[in-house]
From TrEMBL:
The chain crosses the membrane at residues 22-47, 67-87, 142-159. Keywords: Membrane, Transmembrane, Transmembrane helix. The keyword Transmembrane helix applies. InterPro entries: PTS_IID_sorb (IPR004699). GO terms for biological process: phosphoenolpyruvate-dependent sugar phosphotransferase system. This is PTS system glucitol/sorbitol-specific IIC component. The lineage of its organism: Bacteria, Bacillati, Bacillota, Negativicutes, Selenomonadales. PROSITE patterns: PTS_EIIC_TYPE_5. Coiled coil: none annotated. It comes from Pectinatus brassicae.
């Protein structure tokens, strides 16, 4: 009987922990994400959607910017999964590589721009909790994630572009 009672208590404690986490998000991260999304939308409106799209279309002409600047802007301003719509500015032969670069950046961006991908935020927050326990600064982690993410998306974009070109032949 004691084993059944212990299992029942453990089962309910699991849900209590989940509820506590949910309450923390409702009072912490959710308002932050909403404010960030509002700010990004406001910046796009202030700059002008036409200007943002014109910049994106120009940037897709060059390999370096096609797999760095454009995916970064797309993920930050349009967030996941809308960021993939920036692919419409890319020539057809570059679309698979652009998608690869964009999808590879939705995790590294979360430390600096948590609104960009709520699903990946859970992963980042788990890592951040461990960094906090070690007494290390989170800002450095976020910047390193971001910087390494840029390098990775550039490499993935170039490699995927070459693989696609070979497969198309």
């Amino acid at each position: 009987m004691e084993i059944i009672a212990a299992l029942a208590n453990g089962f309910i404690e699991l849900f209590k922990a989940g509820a506590a986490t949910f309450v923390a998000w409702v009072t912490g991260i959710i308002p932050l994400v909403i404010v960030l999304m509002t700010a990004v939308s406001s910046v796009i409106k202030i700059i002008g959607e036409d200007r943002v799209y014109s910049l994106a279309q120009t940037a897709t002409k060059y390999t370096l910017t096609r797999y760095t600047i454009v995916p970064i802007l797309a993920v930050i301003f349009l967030v996941n999964p809308m960021c993939y719509t920036f692919g419409r500015f890319v020539e057809e032969k570059y679309k698979p590589a652009f998608y690869d670069a964009a999808v590879s950046f939705v995790h590294p961006v979360t430390g600096l721009f948590p609104h960009a991908n709520g699903g990946e935020l859970f992963v980042y927050m788990g890592i951040a909790a461990g960094i906090n326990q070690l007494g290390l600064p989170l800002g450095e982690l976020a910047i390193r994630y971001f910087a390494v993410g840029i390098i990775v998306i550039l490499m993935r974009g170039i490699v995927t572009e070459k693989i696609y070109a070979m497969m198309k032949k």
